[in-house]
Design brief:
The chain has 312 residues and is α+β, with helices and mostly antiparallel strands. 33% of the residues lie in helices and 18% in strands. It has 13 helices and twelve strands. It has a five-stranded antiparallel β-sheet. Strands 10-12-11 form a three-stranded antiparallel β-sheet, covered by helices on one side.
Length: 312
């Protein structure tokens, strides 16, 4: 069977408005072969504008990296955002360079629940609390992964530690984190290589599916990570061989080694932020390609695109 590699552009479009002006806010996820020059030309902006809006000190970018693109008319400090389907406080905070705690404070929110059509006030980009605690950098950490793990923006992490986007961090280094972020705890602790591996699996298993379907696939791996019956690492789960059988066909046929699409990276980010369209599933299958009666007999939790998700 011929495998088609499809690269997606994942755009997060929001009605971000300011008093007396209109701002068209987007987040673009870098694809292989992209450069800031190409992205700027594609969206009618400049490299300098992209560098400034993303607090970048270099033009070097990488696949899966989130690049904010904005077309701004007028100026004001009062901003609001209308919640769309699939939004979370974490994603909105990442999109606009603020933090979950800052969003909660600005909107008097006690919990994390949002509803479609809800209007949120967006605090100033990079706004950070003075209440901080320390974090010791571990092997495999990157600023991006630390920010993602604790639900703050990369810009916020860089700003609070007086770092630039090209700054190197090293094991044992002490970084500052908002106390509110640390107290909420890290849901997952994964390295950049783990993130890349998970994105490659999502890409191989569900590149033709909707973003929701790709998030659901990623979520099943994270659900196994929390289950004591499975290995305790992302590679251990993906490469697991049980009774002589590979758990995932892309490992068997080599597709796991293909580059991940931009949408697969986005799906992993959404799953890590807590979105689980699979409803707690720890497995999935395509009914047109599966003859296993055992798999078909398991409790289905969701059907998304060509996949049935199940839990056992």
């Amino acid at each position: 069977m011929q495998i088609k590699k499809v690269f997606f552009v994942s755009m997060m479009l929001g009605s971000l408005t300011t008093a007396g002006s209109y701002v068209f806010g987007q987040t673009y996820y870098v694809q292989p072969g992209d450069s800031l020059y190409k992205i700027a030309a594609r969206y009618g902006t400049t490299v300098n504008a992209l560098l400034k809006s993303n607090n970048l000190g270099t033009t070097m970018i990488y696949p899966g990296q989130a690049i904010r693109i904005g077309y701004v008319a007028g100026s004001s400090t009062a901003q609001s955002y209308v919640v769309k389907s699939g939004d979370t406080l974490y994603l909105i905070a990442q999109r606009y360079g603020t933090s979950v705690s800052a969003l909660k404070q600005a909107n008097n929110l006690a919990g994390n629940t949002l509803y479609i059509g809800q209007r949120l006030s967006i605090p100033s980009a990079g706004a950070i609390t003075s209440d901080t605690t320390s974090y010791t950098v571990k092997s495999g950490d990157t600023p991006y992964l630390i920010a993602q793990r604790y639900g703050i923006s990369l810009n916020q992490l860089l700003s609070i530690n007086n770092l630039k986007s090209w700054s190197q961090i090293y094991p044992g280094q002490i970084l500052k984190l908002p106390t509110s972020a640390v107290s909420s705890g890290a849901k997952y602790s994964i390295s950049q290589s783990d993130l890349d591996l998970l994105a490659r699996l999502v890409s191989a298993e569900a590149s033709g599916e909707s973003l929701e379907g790709q998030v659901a696939v990623a979520a099943t791996i994270l659900n196994r990570l929390k289950d004591p019956r499975y290995p305790k690492t992302i590679p251990g789960i993906i490469y697991q061989v049980d009774s002589g059988r590979y758990q995932y066909s892309p490992v068997l046929d080599g597709r796991i080694n293909e580059p991940a699409t931009a949408s697969a990276y986005k799906a992993v980010e959404l799953a890590l932020s807590g979105w689980d369209p699979s409803n707690g599933a720890n497995g999935f299958y395509n009914p047109s390609k599966t003859s296993s009666q055992w798999v078909r007999s398991q409790q289905a939790t969701a059907t998304i695109g060509e996949h049935i998700f199940f839990k056992y």
